[in-house]
Amino acid sequence: MMRKLLLFALAIVCSVAAVNSQNAAQQGKRYNVYGVMFYNLENLFDTINSNGTYDLEFSPRGARQWNSDKYYKKLHNMAYAISQMATPATPYGPAVIGVSEVENITVLQDLVRQPELRPWHLQIVHHDSPDRRGIDVAVLYNPRFFTFTGDSTFQRLVVPGNPGFRTRDQWCVSGKLAGENVSIIINHWPSRLGGQERSSYLREAAAAMCRRTVDSLLKADPGRGVIFMGDLNDDPMDVSCAKVLGGKRHIADVTAPGDLYNPFWEKLAKGIGTLAYKGGWNLFDQIMMSQYFTQHYQGKDKPHLTLLRAEVLNREFLRNADGPYKGYPHRTFSGGVFLNGYSDHFPTEIFLTKEAE
């Protein structure tokens, strides 16, 4: 009797498997995956003092004794780190990489020529900003997956009552990602110099400018996908991100085309951050997206680019292995000592998926 029951159960399992296999064959659907990453490269400077006092630190005569040996070690480390973000689903790495804390286009050209990245043939979109330290934001992209249409604009932050304030411009780059119209806004908001509360008005002003940019993009083209990323020097629940910019914690709350979903809010709530300070974690390096990328999140079909997942890329090799700062980002310098590390921030990435044509 038992043998008959087992045979009957096996027949049912085989029947169900056959039906499922037939349905899969009928659908015949394949999905591609595309990564969009952000990485603060922590002071990727060349060795030439081209900015007076502010650039002296990163020169051979400066306090860091920033020479060719250290510069090329830094290039190698950053290229290696980016190359290690390839996955089985994205073997050529992220399709688009937003970066901050880069001095000029020359350091980016040196970076993409490194052996670890050269096979990807990364292209560069860069703009010199008025930041007093001379650091910029920029975009690297893989032309296999992203086509830059030549449409890029920058917004310069003007702070009422503080006309002498200078910071990084906000850089908007548009093109086609997997054949779809996408605009990517790269940011590096003002720091917390002077304290979080005293400096928050600067980041709130930056957030308001970003909000206007998002609204303008979607008013001109409601069918466009908008991705917002950067080192915001604020956490997802802070006023600048949650209130002024309007980043939503829960994907169910993204109900209108102009709503922005912030998948990194939940990451921080679980204790996952991108940088550590005095024993606590912050998640300044955020990527948000418009409703375009979330409307099919729960559905079976993904007819256009849809969020698959978001990650803080806190890989083991990017972390300190021991000591009082075990688990923290393994940075380039600490206390003026060259550590030959990577960055004081972990990179972040969102993965988008789409039905293959």
From TrEMBL:
Where's the Endonuclease/exonuclease/phosphatase domain? 36-354
In the UniProt record, does the keyword Hydrolase occur? Answer: yes
Q: Its domain of life? A: Bacteria
- Official protein name in the record: Endonuclease/exonuclease/phosphatase family protein
Signal: present as a keyword of the record?
Answer: yes
User: Pfam families in the record, alphabetically?
Assistant: Exo_endo_phos_3
Q: Do you know which InterPro entries this protein is assigned to?
A: Endo/exonu/phosph_ase_sf (IPR036691), Endo/exonuclease/phosphatase (IPR005135)
Which GO molecular function annotations are given, in alphabetical order? endonuclease activity; exonuclease activity
Q: Give the signal peptide as a residue range, or say none if absent.
A: 1-24
> What organism is recorded for this protein?
Sodaliphilus pleomorphus
| Keywords, comma-separated and alphabetical | Endonuclease, Exonuclease, Hydrolase, Nuclease, Signal
